[in-house]
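Progress note, project year one: complex with LLP.
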Amino acid sequence: MTGFSYRGGVLNAESVPLPRIAEAVGTPVYVYSSAVLAERFERFRRALSGLDATICYALKANDALAVVRTLADLGAGADVVSEGELAIARAAGVPAQKTVFAGVGKSRAEMEAGIGAGILQFNVESLPELEALDQVARAMGRKAPVALRINPDVDARTHAKITTGKSENKFGVPIDEAMEAARRAVGCAGIDLVGLAVHIGSQLTDIEPFRAAFAKMVDLAMAVRAAGMPLKRLDLGGGLGLSYAEEAPPTPEAYGAMVKEVTRPLGLPLLFEPGRHLVGEAGMLLTRVLYVKAGRSRRFVIVDAGMNDLIRPTLYDAHHAMLPVAEPGEEDHLERVDVVGPICESGDVFAEQRPLPPVSSGALLAIGTAGAYGSVMASYYNARPPAAEVMVKGDRFAVIRPRATIEEMIGRDRLPEWLAPPKRSRSSA
Ligand code: LLP
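Model obtained:
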């Protein structure tokens, strides 16, 4: 993987040996490579060259300000799904005119924030949402630019929890109701219908579902246009998968070629919302082995990262590579171990029966392809402040999000007046 490689027997992020980061910052810690971010973005952009395409990075995959800024500096726009993500995109310097506000449940306050910022478009997912946005825009004396998100009823053939384009999923306007929804949008004084949008799921490893969904969208867009409703663009969403284990997802080039072929008859500007593809391989979660425990039937490697830091393995049965930071020797025999975290749940497992060279207490392990949907899904479960985050550039590194202290964690809470001030102990009464 570009960005992370063994040098002199030690795993490096670009030119920084990972043990140096572990010592300076502590573990667990997410480590991101600027070079991989840039390489991924540039390659995706090149794969779309020849198209009038706007790439709006989906912040939900990784919303660290430094990550968003790195991509924004390369020319990325933003796909945001909350007022918080909108604020991060703005703080990272993403122009409002390159920002899309998506999501199935925007509040009126979020609509106001988006209109106020002057964003490129709202992706609207239902008629009640359209009505609310129309009211909010009219109250502000504005017109909200809208792309209707369509549910094309195409199976993305990915994990059920990240499939979004089937009729039983909560997302989008059903495709057979799309024309009527477009008419409704055009009839709203506070709405400017600018396009159509689709996103059928995440971690797609097969190109055919994309092709099927995009073809349906092209037909629909042509029908909408023919009905006298001009469109400015078609938003094709994100979803391009990565190889976490053995998967062979389409390359950006194959994806780009397919998009060109399918959308040629339409001739509209396009918008993309990639998340995982741009950031997944740019990040690793660095963790230290606390104990190696020989169970009755299994060997457990207990590490200091937990499911509160990276929930993907337990939530989606996701596979993540497990790399010893000290390069394994050729003659090291592999043994099957369970790599587990310290959380009080049996599901706190990063890898089950994974062949690993012998590791002992104090060793460092890097959990691979953790740049997407890692830190953003972290929690304080078991009162564990989530992992710190570090970015590397060449031989430099910087903490881009420190780990919260225990004091900061407790400081988030307030006691109701009937419990405060703290009781004095009996002896001091
Ligand atoms: N656009 C929309 C409307 C989306 O819902 C998503 C992701 C994206 C773009 C970006 O998709 P990507 O290019 O990253 O596949 N937590 C899950 C993934 C959830 C994806 C949600 N939507 C995971 O860890 O696999």
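Residues 49 and 256 are 8 Å apart (CA to CA).
The mean pLDDT is 96.
No further modelling is planned for this target in the current period.
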